[in-house]
């Protein structure tokens, strides 16, 4: 494979990235792009086709983690190791990143999430580290509960798997992350979404990560903004989960309209607004929604999920459930939010709909990030 001529230095590309992103982020992103280029871009490949192709192997780097900045001579050594085709792909990628504001994950085509590698493509929401963090923590909580239940059930009939409903599944990262992290055959997980783009991507990710799954995961198209009383039959029909739902988890739309206007272009211009901002029911074209019809708190979808939890019987002592599961020690509703004010509102919505105990988890940055609602008997 022919290598780049010496004048094809990477320094101008780093400078271009730095002007757009800042020096530290530019050095990190250039590192990830170079690593991707070496692994995925072969000599003679159609560059434009590969810009939309998905990679075929798992990578260890997590794009959100800071890494030590490279020195100029290390960058130059990278340049010498790239072929002319690879260098051309890299130039195009950096052009997309700086001029079109295309997110890095869309350029690379994937994002690691726990044990999974999630294929990403616009306009479906890119998995974030904040979501990965709470999903892994939730899996630890559920696994600890499962271990305790199994210890007390020695010699008795094993408890049935937990039935987990994931609302607003998007790329499927949460459902698949739980499907990989939870103990073998301890859960059945259904991810639902209204977006055809999201459902197709979730199904692609199910196939892509199938060998990693230790629990059954599947996906369906469901509009959760329908009247709550019409949803239970639709959600249960054909799914075959005995005992009904045990838990709802979700990274729902919660960005406020004012926050959305201030988002960076690489989010606002590329990712589906429906995954970010709660829109009125029945919205087909977000551009036609008057600003006065938008929820200024960003919490309307979280309230809808609290209503759904109540309608599905997650906030009731009269549920027909396997008592050996001891569900009162597990959250019935888990939702991601973005601020202390939203955490308070989510807690109130859960209490209003029968979840009589709540808990708030902070993320690694110290922001209130997840609200968990319990039903304590």
TrEMBL record:
Enumerate the Gene Ontology biological process terms: methylation
Read off the SUPFAM superfamilies from this record.
Answer: S-adenosyl-L-methionine-dependent methyltransferases
Which keywords fit this entry according to its UniProt record? Answer: Methyltransferase, S-adenosyl-L-methionine, Transferase
Q: What one GO molecular function would you report for this record?
A: protein methyltransferase activity
User: What is the designated name of this protein?
Assistant: S-adenosyl-L-methionine-dependent methyltransferase
Q: Which InterPro entries match?
A: DNA_methylase_N6_adenine_CS, HemK-like, N5-glutamine_MTase, SAM-dependent_MTases_sf
Q: Report one GO cellular component.
A: mitochondrion
- Database matches in CDD domains: AdoMet_MTases
